[in-house]
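Task card 7
Instruction: Convert sequence to structure tokens.
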Amino acid sequence: MSPFAFPPDFRTRDVLSNGTTIHVRSGGTGPAVLLLHGYAETGDMWAPMAVDLASDHTVVVPDLRGMGLSAKPSGGFDKKSQAVDMAGVLDQLGIERADLVTHDIGNMVGYAFAAQYPERVARFVLIDAPVPGVGPWEEILKNPLLWHFRFGGPDMERLVAGRERIYLDRFWNELSANPHAIDEATRQHYSKLYARPHAMHDAFEQFGAFTQDARDNKELAAKGKLTMPVLAVGAEKSFGAGQAEELRFVATNVTSAIVRGSGHWVMEENPIETTQLVVDFLSK
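Output:
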């Protein structure tokens, strides 16, 4: 079976939200859970977890604005705006409240969602990525492994055009504990999606919005910490326990968990343990 195969009863649709179109997969029955992906991937990353969750959850898996099969708009890549995208998706599906599971860029959209709509989030799982403006953000920006956070300039798209696979391989290789866990089929799948027209432009825009995101998040945090239960999942070979340390700056009820033997790409490197951590937390 393909690693990107969602359960056969899942439906795919394009949802109009906040002035753009969001590609969404959804299915299952029970309390809702919203899964938000990160960079170098799309909502497809969640397929193995969706199979487990769908037995007792209504699972909603969008591609973020400008990514995957979602529309490629000219703006709106600040994470507060993308949180509004997600609110609109849930509204269109008739979902008032959901658990939230996020990774990488998804963490940033998820925090903006939870901070703006706390009444709509029952539980929140954030996996292995920082949130702009939160905790030691300025120190995080100095990490040479995160050079792409500030990669910019007029030639960046021209440098990468036609070389998307080369560019993305660097992240899969350098941010993993085991590069072989991101197999050839996975690399080809995402490289093709990121080679679609305007896709890399919008991917770069996700990072280009970080300065605004940091300002926005500081304002959101000043209004009070998140109070819903939060599970901070760090990969053993990446953010580790630092994930929980950072989130305690903005949340009052934080539990720490570690995905053993994994680098940043937890759903490829250790999907079974990652899924079990999420399932156990959401079942409490």
